[in-house]
């Protein structure tokens, strides 16, 4: 832990996805001097989306990276600043302010913090995944399903998210295939029942005891086909790695035009553990909620949460943006109250650290 403080800020925003940038625009316009810390996924999930057609105001659509870049420019126009870096730890000081430490050793103090660090979609790490993410491979059916109208589509997963996405994709797909590594689904009964109705109608086909091992295609032409493995007892990749059972695994090529991962998200909240913040069992931040003001406040005074780090249900660009706006407004009210009470921190900045 360094004792050198680079700078004191009125407000620090963790994350530069759409929620963090929306918060920055509003915070800057309220003269709250926001500093955005990029994080290890600058721009968030939208940077993996080639085209965004469901964000209001763009009738012809807009690319995810372009939307993020435009919002960064808008935030900068109003005075927001950003820097590269990954926040390693946030702690609350006895005086009421926050200490924010980065992985490179830099440290800041802040009167308030907005956590807009998002949730990272879980992936499989199979060959072709990195090259084709955003080019036929997606982690959001609602965002990207319409781009693959009349194609056969593959959904990977067996929980509520997989069932929900498979049902949604039947609006566009020729056939939706659901690959799940076991015989039984983990989804709630209501989602299984809805899915089985679609199976009976021929809109969904189940590939049980099956796993995806490779995605074939190019960014130019999209996905051509995938490689799947199947074993009657489930978990085929484990059995494929075991010489005693490898011969029992059926490996085959399967033609689909799009693949959707629905194997969950991991909220990026580890850096907040030092604050004593409350999360649910899956690590998502718990905020005040409700209908009045202060909906984005956490149980830690001065710490606000917005976007997918809070929202495990909707996970849409437009809803994340709205939550970022709420967080900026809640933070502004908090900071204004502390300023009126003469309780804002006047930190001492180490001159050498600030010049580095």
Automatic annotation (TrEMBL):
Show where the FAD/NAD(P)-binding domain sits: 10-324
Listed InterPro entries:
FAD/NAD-bd_sf, FAD/NAD-binding_dom, Ferredoxin-NADP_redctase_2, Pyr_nucl-diS_OxRdtase_2_AS
Annotated Pfam families: Pyr_redox_2
Please indicate if the UniProt record lists Oxidoreductase as a keyword: yes
One function term, GO molecular function aspect = oxidoreductase activity, acting on a sulfur group of donors, NAD(P) as acceptor
Enumerate the SUPFAM superfamilies for this protein. FAD/NAD(P)-binding domain (SSF51905)
Membrane-traversing stretches: none
Name the UniProt key words of this record, in alphabetical order. Disulfide bond, FAD, Flavoprotein, Oxidoreductase, Redox-active center
Sorted alphabetically, which PANTHER family does this protein's record hold? THIOREDOXIN REDUCTASE 1-RELATED-RELATED
Return the protein name. Thioredoxin reductase (NADPH)
């Amino acid at each position: 832990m360094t004792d050198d403080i680079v700078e004191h800020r009125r407000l620090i925003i963790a994350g530069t996805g759409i929620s963090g940038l929306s918060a920055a625009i509003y915070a800057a316009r309220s003269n709250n001097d926001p500093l955005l810390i990029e994080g290890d996924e600058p721009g968030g999930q939208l940077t993996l989306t080639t085209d965004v057609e469901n964000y209001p105001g763009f009738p012809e659509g807009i690319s995810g990276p372009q939307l993020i870049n435009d919002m960064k420019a808008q935030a900068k126009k109003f005075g927001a600043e950003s820097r590269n870096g990954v926040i390693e730890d946030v702690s609350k000081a006895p005086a009421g302010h926050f200490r924010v430490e980065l992985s490179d050793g830099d440290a800041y103090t802040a009167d308030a913090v907005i956590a807009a660090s998002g949730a990272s979609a879980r992936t499989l790490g199979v060959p072709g995944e990195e090259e084709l993410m955003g080019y036929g491979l997606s982690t959001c059916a609602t965002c990207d399903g319409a781009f693959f109208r009349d194609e056969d589509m593959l959904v990977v997963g067996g929980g509520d998210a997989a069932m929900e996405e498979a049902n949604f994709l039947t609006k566009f797909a020729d056939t939706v295939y659901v690959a799940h590594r076991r015989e039984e689904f983990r989804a709630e009964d209501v989602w299984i029942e809805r899915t089985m109705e679609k199976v009976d109608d021929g809109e969904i086909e189940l590939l049980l005891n099956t796993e995806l091992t490779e995605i074939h295609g190019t960014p130019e032409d999209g996905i051509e086909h995938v490689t799947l493995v199947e074993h009657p007892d489930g978990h085929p990749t484990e059995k494929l790695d075991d010489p005693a059972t490898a011969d029992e695994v059926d490996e085959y090529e399967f033609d689909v035009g799009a693949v959707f991962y629905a194997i969950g998200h991991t909220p990026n909240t580890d850096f907040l553990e030092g604050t004593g913040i409350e999360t649910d069992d899956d690590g998502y931040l718990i905020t005040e909620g409700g209908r009045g003001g202060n909906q984005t406040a956490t149980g830690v005074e001065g710490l606000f949460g917005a976007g997918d780090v809070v929202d495990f249900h909707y996970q849409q660009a437009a809803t994340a943006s709205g939550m970022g706006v709420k967080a900026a407004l809640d933070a502004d009210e908090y900071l204004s109250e502390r300023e009126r009470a003469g309780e804002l921190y006047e930190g001492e900045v180490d001159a050498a650290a600030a010049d580095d």
